[in-house]
Structures are given as structure tokens and as C-alpha cells.
Write a structure and sequence with these properties.
The chain is mainly β and about 400 residues long. It has helices at about 50, 125-140, 300, 345-350; strands at about 15, 25-35, 40-50, 65, 70, 75, 85-90, 95, 100-105, 110-115, 160, 165-170, 180-185, 190, 195-205, 210-220, 230-235, 240-245, 250-255, 260-270, 275-280, 310, 330-340, 370-380. It folds into two domains: about 25-140, no CATH class; about 160-400, Jelly Rolls (Sandwich), CATH 2.60.120. Strands 1, 13, 14, 16, 17, 18, 19 and 23 form an eight-stranded antiparallel sheet that branches. The chain has a seven-stranded antiparallel sheet with strand order 11-12-24-15-20-21-22, with no helix packed on it. A hairpin with a 2-residue loop joins strand 4 and strand 5. The longest helix is centred in the N-terminal third of the chain and has 15 residues, at about 125-140. It has four helices and 24 strands.
């Protein structure tokens, strides 16, 4: 099931690689006189439009100095193409010019804003050094930091599957260090019209590795197990292949052998917003999907031994953190192997010990774990073509029925 030949990732495929570093994100800082004895700076970010599809720079946090325990943040938010953006300050003592606004052209998306440093000795050079580090860390993942500090930054990265523009292949190379490898989609899935996701997967030599061959993350991630995250396959804990929902819903563990396994998965959302995940073999496919699970309601769904389920008996997925009134209720696809040295609460919870293989919290440096997902198909209303969210590239149609 693994690709027989691999080629450099095309810019016209739906699953994209998060850039490892930020050499093409440029930022200019200029001193613009003084205001009431404080130095005034104009900061401009130039971000290539190609990076926006990765959502790599959705939020940049600036901590230039600390005074009496207070610090400053500069945030760039909602910077997806075709979505109105803004620059905001959420902290004390940072003056942002009211005229700060985003602009764009065919190549760059940029923001220019003016702020005042309350310390005359805080030079532009010092601030620029901080900005560089914060922008670089903005491209890493909260879940995983490699031995170099970010993702896809050790000379290896996800690759496309030969002959399948929807597929992605990820493999560890322990000789490079502790890797965090991730591929993300730029295709926005409106949960209101989503009905199913089906794909073929393959796993090799992954015992003791935290990975997720394919999962769906809401644009707005909040509330932990109630976030609406759909982990259709995840090796968390690291001793099995699981279908879960970031700690929420009803999780099941598959019989798959982590050393060599494969099959198909279908994620469905029914008319009431109940979400299920079911694994099957190729011979079980019906209309290109795994058979539809049978349940009479949320209670029965949440007790099935054969499929995973997310529901609450009320609003179900529509009541999750990703679908609140102040969110866009959009989800996207992600594929990753997290074998880094640190991360967030997810890292702490999923980097479990596997007896005789790896200790808790330690990357597994003894395996070349490989995962692949192919034949990805997302269906919209009535099981038909998905109408993607605003700002999704045209090539997203490769991921849906025609």
C-alpha cells in the first residue's frame, strides 16, 4: 500500500506540507521618531500567499520585554485568503495605531502597524530578533516540537503518493533526529454540509510511535474532548491503533498490528450531527465507503464495540467547540507523525510508555515508522460533491466526488 515511487510535492495537490522554516516571511522594522519620550516603530510583515494555505501565521505573539510582570503581544489573526483580517493587541502597555490594517496583492499578504516601546533603550534590533524567533515558532505545532524546535525541519517531510493526488506518505528517519512531520490540507470542510470522509491507509513499523494517519481538526479548537476533533485513526496511546475524539466521545481500539496493517476508514455525520468512524476491508466497501453503522440513537452509538462515536444526545457535533456561534464551523484534514522532544498536553497524554519499546515522554528512535493515506474522498450534502468553504483552492475538488 505504500507508494512505489515518490516525487517532490506538487503545489496543486490538496494535502500540503507545512513549511519547515520561515526564510520567505520578511518583516521590516523602522524607527519613526518618538512619542512622549517613547520610541515609536513601524512593523510590516510580508507573508507569501503560498504560506497562507498552511495557516502557518494565523497568530504571532510578541513578548519584547517584561515590566513588572506585564508583557506585550502583537497578534495577526484570520489571515486566510478572502477572510477579513485584523491586527489586535490584547495586552497592557502596547499602543497600536488605529490605522493598522491588512493589505494584499497577488503575491504577498501583509500587515503594517505602528506601536510604541515604553522603554527608550529597547532598540529596533532587539525587537527584530524577538520577532524572528516568534515568527519561526509560529510555524511549529503546539503538539510537537522536533529536536530542532519546529515541524518538518530536519531535512525530511511528507511526500505525495505516486499516481494519487489525494495521497500522502510520511516516514521517520531516526538518523535525522526527533522528527515532527505533518501535512495539512487547505480545503475547508463546512461541518453543516459534510456527510462522509473515506480513505485507504497503511501502517508499517509504528509500535511506540504517536501518529495520526488522517484526522479532522476544527478551525477553532477549544474544550478538549468537546472540541469536535475527529481522530479517525491515531496511535494514542502508543501501543495501539485507535479511533477517538481527543478524549471525548466513544473511543475504540482496532485489532490492527502496528508493525503492518492497512484497510479503509469511513467517517460519517448523520442528519442529527452524530459522528461515527468505522474501519473495514476493501471487500466490505459499499459505494466506495465502509458499511454504514447501525444505531438507534446517541446512547447506542456510544456503546458500540465496532465503531467510534461522537455525540451528546442534543446538538452533537454542532454543539462542539468547533461549531459555536463565534466560530466558522469549518474542519480541515491533517496527517502527522509526532516523534519530537516536547509539546502540549496532547504530547504529555499520548507519548505513553510501551513496555520494551520506549519510555513515557521519550521519542522512539529505534523505528522507521511509515504511514500513508490514499484515495481520500469527502462527500457533501446527500452524499454528493462537497462545496468547500470560502478560500479553499480549486484543486480541493480532487478530494470529492464529481
Amino acid at each position: 500500500m505504500f507508494p512505489s515511487s515518490l516525487s517532490p510535492l506538487s503545489s496543486k495537490v490538496p494535502i500540503q506540507i507545512v513549511p519547515p522554516k520561515t526564510p520567505t516571511v520578511t518583516y521590516f522594522l523602522s524607527e519613526d521618531g518618538a512619542e512622549d519620550g517613547f520610541k515609536k516603530y513601524v512593523c510590516t510583515f510580508f507573508i507569501p500567499r503560498s504560506l497562507l494555505s498552511y495557516r502557518a501565521c494565523c497568530e504571532l505573539t510578541l513578548h519584547p520585554i517584561s515590566t513588572g510582570g506585564s508583557y506585550y503581544e502583537l497578534k495577526l489573526v484570520n489571515n486566510r485568503p478572502n477572510v477579513e483580517s485584523s491586527v489586535v493587541s490584547s495586552v497592557v502597555d502596547l499602543s497600536l495605531d488605529d490605522s493598522a490594517s491588512p493589505k494584499d496583492d497577488d503575491t504577498f499578504y501583509y500587515v503594517e502597524t505602528t506601536f510604541v516601546s515604553p522603554k527608550p533603550d529597547f532598540t529596533a534590533g532587539k525587537l527584530l530578533r524577538v520577532l524572528k524567533e516568534r515568527i519561526r515558532s509560529g510555524l511549529s505545532s503546539f503538539s510537537c516540537k522536533s529536536s530542532a524546535g519546529a515541524t518538518n525541519d530536519l531535512g525530511s517531510a511528507p511526500l505525495p503518493c505516486s499516481g494519487d493526488p489525494t495521497g500522502v506518505y510520511i516516514s521517520l528517519d531516526p538518523s535525522l533526529g526527533s522528527e515532527c512531520l505533518v501535512a495539512k490540507s487547505a480545503c475547508l470542510i463546512p461541518m453543516a454540509t459534510f456527510t462522509s470522509l473515506t480513505y485507504r491507509y497503511a501502517i508499517s513499523s509504528c509500535a511506540g510511535v504517536w501518529a495520526a494517519p488522517l484526522w479532522m481538526t476544527p478551525d477553532t479548537w477549544q474544550w478538549g474532548g468537546g472540541s469536535g476533533e475527529i481522530d479517525s485513526l491515531e496511535f494514542c496511546p502508543r501501543d495501539g491503533v485507535n479511533m477517538n475524539f481527543a478524549g471525548g466521545g466513544h473511543q475504540i481500539t482496532l485489532d490492527d498490528d502496528m508493525d503492518e496493517a492497512g484497510g479503509y476508514v469511513t467517517v460519517r455525520k448523520d442528519a442529527d450531527g452524530i459522528v461515527t468512524s468505522l474501519r473495514c476491508d476493501e471487500g466490505d466497501l459499499v459505494d466506495g465507503m465502509c458499511p454504514e453503522p447501525s444505531y438507534s440513537g446517541c446512547d447506542e452509538c456510544m456503546s458500540s464495540p465496532s465503531f467510534a462515536c461522537f455525540c451528546d444526545g442534543q446538538s452533537n457535533i454542532y454543539g462542539s467547540g468547533g461549531c459555536q456561534p463565534d466560530t466558522d464551523c469549518m474542519w480541515t484534514l491533517v496527517s502527522d507523525i509526532w516523534n519530537g522532544v516536547s509539546g502540549d498536553d496532547g504530547y504529555d497524554g499520548c507519548m505513553t510508555a510501551v513496555e520494551g519499546v520506549v519510555e513515557k515522554g521519550e521519542p522512539n528512535m529505534k523505528t522507521e515508522c511509515s504511514i500513508s493515506v490514499e484515495k481520500i474522498e469527502v462527500r457533501g450534502e446527500g452524499g454528493g460533491k462537497m462545496v468547500w468553504g470560502d478560500g479553499s483552492p480549486e484543486y480541493c475538488d480532487l478530494l470529492t466526488v464529481q
